[in-house]
Amino acid sequence: MNTTNFTKTYYINRRGTHSRKWDGEHLKFSRTDLLPLWVADMDFMTPPCLQEAIANYVKTTPLGYTMTNPNYLDAVINWYKCRHNCNLSKDWLTSAPNVITGIMWSIGAFTKPNDAIAVLSPVYGAFDTSTSDAQRHIVPIAMRRTTDNRYTVDYDAFESTIIQQDVKLFIHCNPHNPVGHVWTEAEMAQLFSICKRHDVLIISDEIHQDLITGPIPFRSALSVSNGAYADNMITMSSVSKSFNMASLHHAEVIIPNDELRSQYNTYKALVYHTDSDVIAEAAITAAYTYPEAETWLNTALTVIRENYEYLCRELLSALPKLRISPMNGTYLAWIDFGAYVMADDMHDVFENQCRIAPSFGEWFGGESYATFVRLNLATSLTNIKVATHSIIEHIQP
């Protein structure tokens, strides 16, 4: 199926479906008649084989108390091995309702109030919120932006901050939201070796692991240096981004170290008493098992890449001083409009003139990013064209 047919088949008008992105603009914006490109989910229906797996389970199986289905565990392990060349053990797998909840539980299990938790900034704002809600101290370590708009780490600054702030936990994001960076093994090895040297526990949020849209392959933190850092690490992932199933509340939490896993599960038992989410397990098993699902994913990535290339081509032709970061992972474009729009004018320009609802840059690290927006490209090319030409029309070179 080509990208045009994919969009015709799977794109859906989500207005009136209680979509947070489409029907929840009042939560973040001054008006509700905007083209929403903010919340990170897709405007595409999930693959039919996943819909059928859910429907078949409900039709054929009582929705009573259950235990974890071993077929689900096998599917996760096989997906990691075949798609990401990463070997897991069943014993390593536990869960959370979603990745952010898993991060919050890990913060609760492994740190104390007022402990310092480090992130590389700019980064997904929920990391900051989760840390604040848990009464911990967030330590943002700013990445450096290169002349070609890529992001790198000053490793000396990273280490000195960890020492000075007595950091206990580092939340790593790969691929990195919002800048679209896919971390190389060499980069991660430098970060993780510093953490190991200073007894800093690592959480690796890998929710965008399947959404690779550039030349750098994804490598799980678990596999770095042949697993040298896995004993000091918790990784998390979910099908929620890859197959657009965020409303099915389930995430894999992968903890190779027996003691850490036991500590996590003990904390989890204090705050969460439930059985397996059988609907999520059925959908995940199908997503990671059926060839049609992987074909759907690969075509969706092609659609997203085409949207990104169109956006970059048209915007840079009209507004050549824009700084657009390479989107090697995620479906999120990170764009700095600072050459054309003052920070104080960004909300007015995008909401009242362009009529677009983006994720604004300050949501990812404060005022330092107030001239940035993050645009969700997992939608139709038609929507991207509307947004692109509205920006060109209302922002003067």
Automatic annotation (TrEMBL):
Assigned keywords, A-Z: Aminotransferase, Lyase, Pyridoxal phosphate, Transferase
EC number(s) reported in the record: 4.4.1.13
Gene3D superfamilies: Aspartate Aminotransferase, domain 1 (3.90.1150.10), Type I PLP-dependent aspartate aminotransferase-like (Major domain) (3.40.640.10)
PANTHER family, A to Z: PROTEIN MALY (PTHR43525)
EC class of the enzyme, as a word: lyase
Membrane-spanning residues: none
Claim: Transferase is one of the keywords in the record: yes
Cofactor(s) listed in the protein's UniProt record: pyridoxal 5'-phosphate
Protein family according to the UniProt entry: Belongs to the class-II pyridoxal-phosphate-dependent aminotransferase family. MalY/PatB cystathionine beta-lyase subfamily.
Alphabetical list of SUPFAM superfamilies matching this protein: PLP-dependent transferases
Organism: Veillonella tobetsuensis
Domain Aminotransferase class I/classII large, chain residue ranges per copy: 41-389
One matching Pfam family: Aminotran_1_2
UniProt GO molecular function: cysteine-S-conjugate beta-lyase activity; pyridoxal phosphate binding; transaminase activity
Protein name per Swiss-Prot or TrEMBL: cysteine-S-conjugate beta-lyase
